Amino acid sequence: MSVTSRYRGAWEGFWREAPDEQGAVFWDAEPALTAGVHLALFEPYVTFHGLPLVDLGCGNGTQTRFLADRFPRVVGTDISAAALDHARHADTAGQATYQLLDASEKSEVQRLHAELGDANVYMRGVLHQCEPEDRQPLVDGIATLVGERGRVFLVELSEAARPVLMELAQGADGPPAKLAPILRHGIAPGEVSDESVPDHLGAAGLTVLASGELPLVTAEYTAVGTRIELPSKWLVAGRTAG
Question: Which positions fall inside the Methyltransferase domain (predicted)?
């Protein structure tokens, strides 16, 4: 299966309107506060550091470029061609490569695995934005990319994030400036139960090797100047526990 045209169109419209500058998008926080923190949790479980790394749902590539300094080959993938245009434009040094990918579409993921072989995968905040029927196919796609030797680091908003987002969206002055475009394009985060994420991984044949809780840092601030952070859970998984 593949994602709905509505979902794909929402992301394409969002990224066509998004500014080029780093930090202008709600979740586009500095890598030192995002991928850098995640990498410290991920690396102890990466058994084959020489494998390519796929940044799944890379958006404008801010985290992709950071990861490209730390892995031998990094491929940023996204469902939105406009997002990849931003990523390529920002990657002036050509640190990574970028590919259009619907990771819920079996044939597309198989093609990328045939090109790369087994890969490590980084995915931040994608699953909760998917349509419910696309979530298991997406995780199945991750399992295909990981193969026998790779590992995946997955971080998703927890159930506790939903009331925080609702409060932000319904504030007296309207949603924060960087959250408003997300809502306007119909990309309101869905509700994924905390238990369902490891269940999806298990159904895809992956073993959870580690997990924990961590605030998901955004690039937005409250009216009083404090950075908005959303409750999230992270997991590392692979084909075996070995």
Answer: 54-147
